[in-house]
Amino acid sequence: MFNHHIESNGKKSLNFLWLEITGKCQLECTHCYAASGPNGTHGHMTKDSWARVIEDAADLGVNSLQFIGGEPTLHPNFSELLRLAVERGIEVEVFSNLVYITPSQWDLFSEMGVSLATSWYSDDANEHASITNRKSFESTKAGIKEAVRRKIPIRAGIIGVQEDQRVEQAKQLLIDLGVDENKIGYDNLRQVGRGVRDAQPGLDQLCGGCADGVLAISPSGDVWPCVFSRWMTLGNVLKQSLIELLSSQEVVNAREQLKEYFIYMGSDDDDDECWPETKCRPKDLCEPQCPPKCSPACNPCHPGRICWPDYYGGDNKGW
């Protein structure tokens, strides 16, 4: 057993992981930061590679992780990897489009006590389909209803992609389906992957939470600060262990760069703050129902608001 990595400020250097286990997805959403779709692959990471990452994460004291993709339930070893993570004491959230969850997967979710997350776009099936590029509205809605029926914790992120999108009506439908209103988040389009419109991927598309205690791992083994910062490759877990990578100069430098950039974001005049402690207590505990701010959904922060991390603790807010 390794000792937990502790930074000089007393915080653990890793609390939360995104495991992007596949680029394959039934949908082909117009804004997908990972550019996932039916032609996506599971990459170079094998079942043993992912298992080693999960074992390292547990040894490092990681509190929680999220399986994401693509659509993670399409990975042939998804169920085994999920079970391993839970058995190692890590809280697990599965970010799924809920288009098709097999009966055995539903039973696994219930048995292992995991949480679910999904993206939602509209109360109108045609508008929903215009974003996902598939007629997925009824399938995802049925998946949400099944999660609620089984009392599996579920949260939903409404992503604003189109002008005049029916986001308020989308939220109301989620509430009508039984999703807790407090578990419905909102995020704007991130100009990353297929989300690129009139800008290029850059730090201004991030919220700043990826500077502190989180990492994402891709199907190829590449490691990023988060799933949105895909141009910032920090290393590869096929070439070095997660434990070794955390101590690397690449990770240290990237986190310092992100802190430096985001500490000056926003202004004191903005009263619409989105600090971690407003969503989760204790604020340093990463739980699936209250993930780091740059999680793809349930995100109280987005570029342009006061949403740099509280690196210094208390009410200092980084100043």
Describe the 3D structure.
This is Iron-sulfur cluster-binding domain-containing protein. InterPro entries: 4Fe4S-binding_SPASM_dom, Aldolase_TIM, Radical_SAM_PqqE_MftC-like, rSAM, rSAM_sf. It holds the Pfam family SPASM. This protein is of the alpha/beta class and 319 residues long. 26% of the residues lie in helices and 13% in strands. The chain has a single domain, classed as Aldolase class I (TIM Barrel, Alpha-Beta Barrel), CATH 3.20.20. The chain has a nine-stranded mixed sheet with strand order 6-5-4-3-2-1-7-8-9. The chain contains eight helices and nine strands. The relative contact order is 0.15. The radius of gyration is 18 Å and the shape is globular.
From the alpha-carbon coordinates, what is the Rg to the nearest angstrom? 18 Å
Question: How many separate domains make up the residues?
Answer: 1
Under CATH, the topology is which? TIM Barrel
H/E topology pattern: EHEHEHEHHEHEEEEHH
What's the helix count?
8
Count of DSSP strands: 9
Q: Give the N-to-C terminal Cα separation.
A: 37 Å
**Gross morphology:** globular
CATH class: Alpha Beta
Output the strand order for the largest sheet. 6-5-4-3-2-1-7-8-9
Main sheet record: 9 strands, mixed
Spans of at least 5 consecutive residues whose pLDDT stays below 50 are: 191-198, 266-319
Q: What percent of residues adopt helix (DSSP H or I)?
A: 25-40%
What structural class do the secondary elements suggest?
alpha/beta
Q: Please name the CATH architecture.
A: Alpha-Beta Barrel
Q: State the fourth-level CATH superfamily.
A: Aldolase class I
* Rounded average pLDDT: 77
**Share in β-strands:** 5-15%
